[in-house]
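Subject: mismatched residue count in predicted assembly?

I count 834 residues in my input, but I want to confirm that the predicted structure covers every chain. Input:
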Amino acid sequence: MKKMIRTDKLVFEYIRRDEEGNVEGITRAIDDVNLSVEPGQFIAILGHNGSGKSTLAKHFNALLYPTEGEVYVDGMLTEDDEHLWDVRQEAGMIFQNPDNQIIGQIVEEDVGFGPENMGVPTEEIWERVDESLKAVRMDKFRKSSPNHLSGGQKQRVSIAGVIAMHPKCIIMDEPTAMLDPNGRKEVIRAARGLNQVEGITVILITHYMEEVVDADKVFVMDKGKVVMEGTPREIFAQVDKLKALKLGVPQVTLLAHELRKSGVPLPNPILTRKELVEALKACR
Amino acid sequence: MSIMLNHVNYIYDEDTAMASAALIDVSLKIPDGQFIGLIGHTGSGKSTLIQHMNGLVKPSSGQVFFNNEDINDKDYDKKKLRAKVGLVFQYPEHQLFESDCFKDVCFGPKNLGLPQKEVELRAYEALKQVGFDDDYFYQSPFDLSGGQKRRVAIAGVLAMKPQILILDEPTAGLDPKGREDILNLISDLHKTMGITIILVSHSMEDVADYVERIIVMNKGRVAFDAEPREVFSHYKELEEIGLAAPQVTYCMQELKAAGFDVSTDITTLEEAKKEILKALGK
Amino acid sequence: MLRDITLGQYYRTESVIHSLDPRVKIVGTFSFIISLFLVKNFIGYVIAALFLCACIKLSNVPPKFIFRGMRAIFFLLLITMVFNLFLTPGEPLVSFWKIKITKEGIRLAIMMGVRLVFLITGSSLMTLTTTPNNLTDGLEDLLKPLKKVRVPVHEISMMMSIALRFIPILMEETDKIMKAQMARGADFESGSIMNRAKSLVPLLVPLFISAFRRANDLAMAMEARCYRGGEGRTKMKPLVYKRIDIIALAVIFGYVVCCLVFGRILFR
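Triage response: the counts match. Full output below for your records.
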């Protein structure tokens, strides 16, 4: 079976210039990244600000091209010009700022923007808009102006806009960074729904650890490299390492970690409150 | 020195079809030296509330007093008030504009009409207070990381020597390490300078570790106003208005329900750890 | 004051005017504007006023909402009227020192004032009842012939629709920046003109930086959603003339004829 996304020795460098435009130096934003994503997976990429995770994400949608190495989306090389639009259609992208990615003045018009660009016939655009808005439960707001929606609702509209293009994979680049806790929950719920109900591969880039607990696989990035890789359980078992990478850990996991240090024999890691209570019962 | 709000109401877009109440009958007293967390989700009125405190927004009815003077009196000097009640907005991008960080921090004191020497002295002090590295003083503020920008923005207000510092979601958009750094900085400012701090946030966990008093806003009203343990004991009501207590508070509740002999009014990780160890007899 | 600008805002409601084809509304608005400059007498303006009032009534947009936009152009209106009042040569009515007010001046000032108010109201009504996307679609379609002479019609209409979408966002942002700087003691309201101009720097720099960032983000988001210009694009809401549109066109034609006949030819 073809991998959904595969990178091969991916390197991305950009040239820093001073105010006069002279070259100051070269920054390696992505350094030898090899990763692969299976179709249907829910993947999380973690990392602090500036760790290269957003730059990596932009490679999956052919918004950036590798300096060295290769990126394949569904078996297509992203640098191949003839596949450019197929890559962008198959791998949809959600960005951080909800305001800066909504083009339409009315929710339904924005959702139709992608299919319009793809040359989908009018009638089918309407069908796609209907089903996409339903999938993120925003059909009630289809005639609203995006300016009157909350942050979480705007992000859901953006997600609908991507679904309407019938992608196989959605890459979400810190979609919750500018939202409040309610908005964050809404967006994550929508993403999980897509993954489970529609079977769309989701790649979630974030620095909120609570959001990755249910992922199939987690990649942790630092200084352009993938430094940790595994299931959430394997990742959260290494609290000290995560802290060194400037990342937080859910409070329950942290509490269990502290208790373990004080000699309470708890399993590693603890991800939920329920697990903690059960484990503590066993210690009594 | 204190702020007092007396039955403040604020109606947004008054006398239009879209009029809506942003604040409803808010009465508060902010005494000197407190470290206060102001919590509520988007649209709860918390941003409107803090803008009343330095006179950026005028109440539709009710009064705001600073040191027993009504700040909306005609001849009240608003500029002086804004130096005393410093307000740092959510996004530093909304205020940084000068070619280097030092000049940007000078903007506030310069507007107060201070002599150049005093202006620069204050800017220097303020940048030091926020732990800003000398090397970056003359760098453009636009090239800085999110956390550093935030420091410059806070320094820009500190340089006016406020007695009350209000910060609107100072950790939004930062990564976990950045959040912790900024919260520690604010806590240090409170300890070393003794100024009153009002920290606006929608994260209970951020706030619980630091503040001595929490004000919860919901739909334009003050829903709770008490010390953290008292507020979090209402965790069920908090959930109803779309907020939550820190995870550890829930843990203790669940442990208690499972038959552990633990106290439930726990708000921080340290307390939780001690309490559990005690219950386990260690 | 920034909140008051209604030009370029869409008022969501259901009405006959809302349901009209954007091309009809554009043609109608332009005919209306041209008619304002063609009529020469009082009767012509009465006809224009009646036509405008009828349109407002049909649009279900509260008149208060439309006229709120007038506050923003108040100064422009004032300046235009003052200039015409004092600088029109002719038979002097009142004169003191070097200033004189002429009969022609009064006439012209009132006429210009009325024209300006009608013009703004008319175009506000168009934007209030037409979604910007719809509006630009209409423009694109009307300007299609220009494509043959290599005018990038699609690109222009896309740019306009994006500009319109971001106006409210940038306004809100302006408000926030102003408040953030006022919290640092900035003063946008008093002082000499020079000082006031200078005081705009702390407002404009963050605003421009933000606008550029938004533009950059948006370009990327559009590319990610397969945007590649007008070629091969289909429409979610293609424009089709309906019966009501034909009727509206007839009404507009009737109005223009009335204006010409009563406002210009019959009564001089």
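Chain A has a mean pLDDT of 91. Marking this ticket as 'not a bug'.
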